[in-house]
């Protein structure tokens, strides 16, 4: 992200400036890295303590609270940002072409990501010679559906919220939201407000002011990211360590090699094609990638992704307000491309099923098109069930991989959110609407 220091006021004296910390210490990206390192230290310390210790509990509570704070602002942020962007898109030429181009680049990056997953799985053969217990195979509780996308975009109520209650003594009721439904509602209201003309101007003015307030509160939460990063990675190390790998270590390696190919080969090639500096992009998007890794939630990171895309990558706010929420629900190169490809081939190898060219073409098709079918229910496990059912492989194979789900989910989410920011930047660059100033400022520093 671009510099996060507050600009100096005219009243600042040279003596005051001399007492300030060096700029690298106040840089947001550096602070996130420091939080990551601190989290590793705390995690290994907690793992060396007794099983139920105060440090692990504290890290768990702090990490969960931070993710909850990020998710708290998603519904109002998406609503206000999309309604405002629809109104402002009148100022952006070829808005429809931008939407089509976004979906096209979603598909292109997903295509090459799934190819990377297939290549790694065929070379490393993670399902052959494994010592995993067949008894761990079990049918999943939730499965993907080709009708899931159509069902998920129809709002269940005006706010896109749903409630669930526990049948225990506490009787707790929890609320959840569907970003796709909120996106559809917001688009409809935004279009209606534009068509209403002058009568809707007070509403649009209020929405724009409300968006500025939400973004200010959001920045307060984002500034806590180094603390949240330390707590989340510390809890992950304390909870999982290396013990969960067991007989699935080869599979985990295959997944991370595939993800590394996407980050190190596919994305740089796309950036080069678009004329964007590779190192500069990764330096700016680092807060998004690292938060995706530790939070394991594209939705939780979405507010950060949007802010980084606008301020550090130069993506216009009117376009980012559309592309980032859409990408957070349907753009999943880690969960919907690399993972189902490697996992499906793993299941086939484990059960001794020979795959042919048709099967591999189906894996590519599901990964490129099928991610939308699981957008309403999200989750890589649901995406995997869609892939396995399309290939005719046993759904019980999903149960073989659940033990290491948290470990691989960190890497998958990091790739997901990085890809979401990448597509927004690439489309903006190719459309000639990218603000070059943040990139020039980075070169001057």
UniProtKB/TrEMBL annotation:
Keyword Transport appears in the UniProt entry: yes
Keywords (A to Z) from UniProt: Cell membrane, Membrane, Transmembrane, Transmembrane helix, Transport
SUPFAM superfamilies: Proton glutamate symport protein (SSF118215)
Pfam families: SDF
Subcellular location: Cell membrane
Recorded topology in the membrane: Multi-pass membrane protein
GO cellular component, one term: plasma membrane
Listed transmembrane segments: 28-49, 69-90, 102-124, 144-163, 175-197, 217-239, 251-270, 336-353, 360-376, 382-404
A GO molecular function held by the record: symporter activity
Highest taxon of the lineage: Bacteria
GO biological process: dicarboxylic acid transport
Entry protein name: Aerobic C4-dicarboxylate transport protein
Taxonomic lineage of the native organism: Bacteria, Bacillati, Actinomycetota, Actinomycetes, Mycobacteriales
């Amino acid at each position: 992200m671009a510099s996060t220091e507050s600009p100096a006021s005219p009243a600042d004296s040279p003596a005051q400036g001399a007492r300030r910390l060096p700029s690298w210490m106040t840089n947001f990206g550096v602070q996130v890295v420091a939080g990551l390192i601190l989290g590793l230290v705390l995690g290994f310390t907690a793992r060396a303590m007794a099983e139920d210790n105060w440090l692990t509990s504290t890290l768990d509570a702090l990490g969960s609270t931070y993710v909850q704070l990020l998710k708290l602002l998603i519904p109002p942020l998406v609503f206000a940002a999309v309604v405002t962007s629809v109104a402002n898109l009148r100022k952006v030429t070829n808005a429809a072409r931008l939407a089509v181009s976004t979906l096209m680049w979603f598909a292109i990056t997903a295509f090459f990501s799934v190819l990377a997953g297939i290549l790694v799985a065929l070379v490393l053969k993670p399902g052959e010679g494994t010592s995993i217990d067949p008894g761990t195979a079990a049918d999943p509780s939730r499965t993907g559906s080709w009708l899931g996308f159509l069902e998920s975009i129809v709002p269940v109520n005006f706010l896109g919220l749903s409630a669930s209650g526990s049948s225990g003594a506490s009787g707790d009721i929890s609320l959840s939201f569907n970003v796709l439904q909120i996106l559809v509602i917001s688009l409809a209201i935004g279009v209606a407000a534009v068509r209403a003309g002058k009568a809707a101007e007070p509403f649009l003015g209020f929405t724009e002011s409300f968006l500025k307030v939400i973004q200010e509160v959001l920045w307060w939460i984002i500034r806590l990211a180094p603390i949240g990063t330390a707590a989340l990675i510390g809890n992950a190390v304390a909870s999982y360590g290396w013990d969960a790998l067991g007989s699935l270590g080869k599979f985990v390696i295959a997944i991370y090699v595939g993800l590394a190919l996407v980050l190190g080969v596919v994305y740089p090639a796309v950036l080069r094609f678009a004329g964007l500096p590779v190192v500069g992009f990764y330096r700016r998007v680092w807060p998004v990638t690292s938060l995706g890794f530790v939070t394991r939630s594209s939705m939780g990171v979405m507010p950060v992704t949007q802010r980084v895309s606008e301020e550090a990558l130069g993506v216009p706010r009117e376009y980012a307000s559309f592309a980032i929420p859409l990408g957070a629900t349907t753009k999943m190169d880690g969960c919907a491309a690399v993972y189902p490809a490697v996992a499906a081939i793993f299941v086939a190898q484990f059960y001794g099923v020979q795959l042919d060219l048709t099967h591999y073409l189906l894996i590519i098709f599901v990964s490129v098109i099928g991610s939308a079918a699981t957008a309403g229910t999200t989750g890589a496990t649901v995406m995997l069930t869609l892939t396995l059912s399309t290939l005719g492989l046993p759904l019980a194979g999903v149960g073989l991989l659940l033990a290491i789900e948290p470990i691989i989910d960190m890497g998958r989410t990091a790739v997901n959110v990085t890809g979401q920011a990448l597509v927004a930047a690439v489309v903006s660059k190719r459309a000639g609407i990218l603000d070059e100033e943040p990139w020039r400022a980075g070169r001057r520093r």
